[in-house]
Write a structure and sequence with these properties.
By secondary structure, the chain is α/β, with parallel strands linked by helices. It is built from ten helices and twelve strands. Helix content is about 35%, strand content about 25%. A six-stranded parallel sheet has the order 5-4-6-7-3-10, sandwiched between helices. A two-stranded antiparallel ribbon has the order 1-2. Helix 1 packs parallel to helix 2.
Length: about 250
């Protein structure tokens, strides 16, 4: 259940404990229909493998109509598809355009149950004003149970796209993976409610944190490299012993 066979390399990968906990948290949340959530796993900790395993386990859940893994850039779309297909050859196909994405969303083929796409293509598919009327064509999915898993969700899931997903798929469950969640102290995106503006955090969008594996955990475990810290004066010259610090740079 928590191994991945890489057929092309004749290698069996065992998931790390924090990856298992994260996958199980998502699967339990879906099986019990307990709303949304997000996974805080630091950069370099293997979020793609974690999300792949979560997606494949959902593929065998008869209550789920579709599972979409959504990335926020075209190069990540290609990279994620390559990684998914490395873990399981042929498990996801390229969505060359929005029309292809819509066709696969409406397909009953088991191979189309897990779809990797960009937030841009998904946004066009859900645009009520698009001349191809994609949103109208997707109405048969409105009452279905859909699962959306967002990579780098701190960047891609604020504003109109999130609103469109909630409107088109009211029964959908949304899960985000991020290495840098948005908290009140580092929030920059604002939303207007009545006459008041407030900052929007990752928890506002996805609800509860399902699992955390931070940079501190990863460094302690030896799974990512430590930071190298240099100290500089205001003009950029290195600090000499005994001098007061004017500016700190993390390299």
């Amino acid at each position: 259940r928590y191994t991945v066979l890489i057929q092309s390399e004749r290698k069996l990968m065992m998931m790390r404990p924090y990856q298992i906990y994260a996958v199980q948290a998502i699967v339990d949340c879906i099986q019990q229909n307990r709303g949304n959530g997000y996974i805080w796993h630091t950069t370099g900790s293997g979020k793609t493998l974690t999300s792949f395993k979560a997606s494949t386990l959902l593929k065998d859940n008869p209550d789920i109509e579709k599972c979409l893994f959504v990335v926020d850039r075209k190069d990540l779309d290609r990279q994620t598809r390559q990684e998914f297909n490395r873990f399981q050859p042929g498990c996801v196909e390229e969505n060359t355009n929005t029309e292809t994405l819509v066709q696969r969303l409406l397909s009953d083929d088991y191979t189309d149950k897990v779809i990797v796409t960009t937030i841009q293509k998904l946004g066009l598919a859900l645009d009520a004003n698009h001349r191809q009327q994609y949103r109208q064509r997707l109405k048969p999915l409105r009452d279905k149970r859909m699962v959306f898993i967002f990579d780098e969700c701190h960047r891609s899931q604020f504003g109109e796209n999130h609103r469109a997903i909630r409107e088109c798929f009211p029964n959908a469950q949304l899960f985000g993976f991020t290495g840098t969640p948005i908290f009140p102290e580092n929030a920059t995106y604002r939303t207007i409610e009545g006459e008041a503006a407030r900052m929007v955090t990752t928890a506002d969008i996805f609800g509860k944190q399902l699992h955390a594996y931070t940079i501190t955990h990863a460094i302690d475990d030896g799974n990512v490299l430590r930071f190298h810290v240099d100290y500089f004066k205001g003009g950029g010259a290195p600090i000499k012993p005994g001098e007061a610090l004017a500016k700190q740079a993390v390299v």
